[in-house]
Amino acid sequence: MSIEQVEVLVPIPILEKFSYLLPAQFQDNPPSPGSRVLVPFGRRNLVGVVWDVKKNISKKDRKLKNIKEVLDHKPLLNKESLELADWASRYYHYPLGDVISYFFPPPIRKGKEAKFAEVKFLELTSKGDFLNIDDLSKAPNQKKLIEALKDKKELSQKAAAAYGVNTSSINALIDKGLISRYVRELSPYKKEEVPDASSVKKKLNEEQKFAVDSIVKSENHNKVFLLNGITGSGKTEVYLQAIQEVIKKGKQALILIPEIGLAPQAEERFKKYFGERVLSFHSAKNDREKVDAWLGASKGLIDIIIGTRSSVFMPMNDIGIIVIDEEHDLSYKQVDRFRYSARDIALYRAKIEKIPVVLASATPSLETLNNSLEGKYEILNLTKRATGASLPKYLPIDLRGKELKEGFSDELIDASEEELKKGNQVLIFLNRRGYAPSLICKTCGWLSNCDRCDALMTIHKRPPKLQCHHCESQKDEPKVCPSCQSNDFLSYGYGTERIEEFLTNRFSQFPVLRIDSDSTRKKESMNEYLGLINSGRPMVLLGTQLLAKGHHFPNVTLVGILDADSGLFSADFRGSERVAQLMTQVAGRAGRDKKPGKAILQSYCPDHPQIEELIKGSYESFAKNLLLERKSAKSPPFTFLAKIQAESANSYVSRDFIKALINKLKKSKAYPKDIRVIGPLPAIMEKKSGVYRWELSVLSGSRNSLHKFLDLSQASLYNPKTSKKVRWSIDVDPLSSI
Ligand code: ADP
Ligand code: ZN
Ligand code: ZN
Fold it and tell me: Which of 185, 216, 242 is the last residue of a domain?
């Protein structure tokens, strides 16, 4: 019997799937789950994805609307991708129709053909084939092309141009009926042989070898590894070699990286091993490149995809391994709309696909560390630096009672100078971009508050402006104080622009590179900076956390952390974990090659237990202590957390919305017993981007109960009667509370 009814997901925030009839003209070539269709929806037509097809329909369904168009006769998503989408939708309590759109690059999502670019080709006609080539002796260009076509059978018009044949010669041959032109889809990828990587392949140390063997042994089944290796211990080398074995079996690999700036470096390193079979995927790619990569991966023409967060949804023909580099990194969690964690999606994807996952980090998240300690993941330890270098020495500098020059102690300046003079590179870390975090009127105390946020606007000098780092709004720096008309201002505190000014003056004979999200806004600039750094010349690198992530700078011997105290007194229960990760990562940029490195930490409270523990112990001992604290406080990962947030133009409207929700849920018979709700409470920064935000935290020792509670909430929130004045969101496993 033929298919009569099709269940379709549409990309709108609605929980249901919609059913349509499949009209007769599509019966011969019906869509299947994972194909796109065009469907009428209200007054619009939408591109939807087929979820299910039915052969028998009930009488009442005969009134359903017809599918307008079948866009794909072969599904674009396989069964595994559909299963992953279904799970993610239920886990994050986000509509399936929206979740599924993450599996497509934008043009495909909008209904464009799932094809590589179409290219003009030339081939011989039979007349051309029988032509005596000497007949063309007066037209040498035409002759050249005919000869080439006899040899190659077909040539793209572009390739013909490479033979020195211009369009008029081509047209002349077409007019004579000797060649014809046609249009065909052309894949930019060829299935190539695995290149010989023996010259780049490092001889592994015992720990690395054990790690590679363990990963390779678990191919074809689902197992999670924590590749827990100190900075510079050769983690990348381990997963490169493990991936090599996977590729040899004809399978593909997906590597997630936290930061687009790391893509060129990673791609280059992978290409040394795997040649042109590697491709990176991130937001800076244009639509054509995104579609090509997506088609290449799903058709199995590309073996290795290296990408940022959203690449976790990349359909692949035969995926054999997933690696998540710097698994602790916050960028894996999307913080708006669909609030997924790419790490956790990857873990589930690996389960469906029955493949191993490698979580690599020198500073694993407490979640991952706990799972490893509980035996759910296998820990692979790399305890030594691969190049034989030792970990950098920490030197705390007590700032109390010291006179500072633009935030620098004499010790840090002298040490920097010494390293630069020795021909080494120095990295200064300050996690704050702009010139100074606030502008103060010295006469009346006026502060540069943002009108839209509970936050101060940062002073920027290049270009000059005040900018809010929470809502991005900007204004000119006032000439006189808006409150008392005085013109006596103080730029309070330090940002990277200000430190750059100081360093450029102080170390005028050396280049100073400022690397933050302002200076790397242009697509190629990060690459240019990396090129300069890799030249190895003595210079000062000054940057935010952008510099802390994963980079390998062999010539950095000194890392200076200007303000080790920032973050120590955070209101977020994850604050300490973040500080420890960031410090360890930044310090870990020092002494990665042959020369030993040190890390200077400037602090007003060097005897703070957290700073002491980091300096004397290790990230691991620090993290284990934190886990004990979390356990006694019953906070994640020992309990499961979700947040429901409401935002609106009025504080009380947001608060009352959450209040009404929880009151309603409490009346439900399905309200789970073993959950704890906290709130409504204002968000840590209540006002942001002009709206007021209130939250409900939901905690439970049982994932199941937490999900039951969220299911109930979702049913109530997605109700058409829900107030339109309020925007709300559900965040499962939230990471930050700003
Ligand atoms: P991680 O990923 O842990 O930061 P990398 O894999 O980038 O470490 O390795 C750090 C440096 O050590 C790189 O220059 C790398 O080429 C080198 N390296 C890695 N493994 C070895 C090895 N077994 N022998 C020699 N050098 C190695
Ligand atoms: Zn004033
Ligand atoms: Zn703002």
Answer: 185
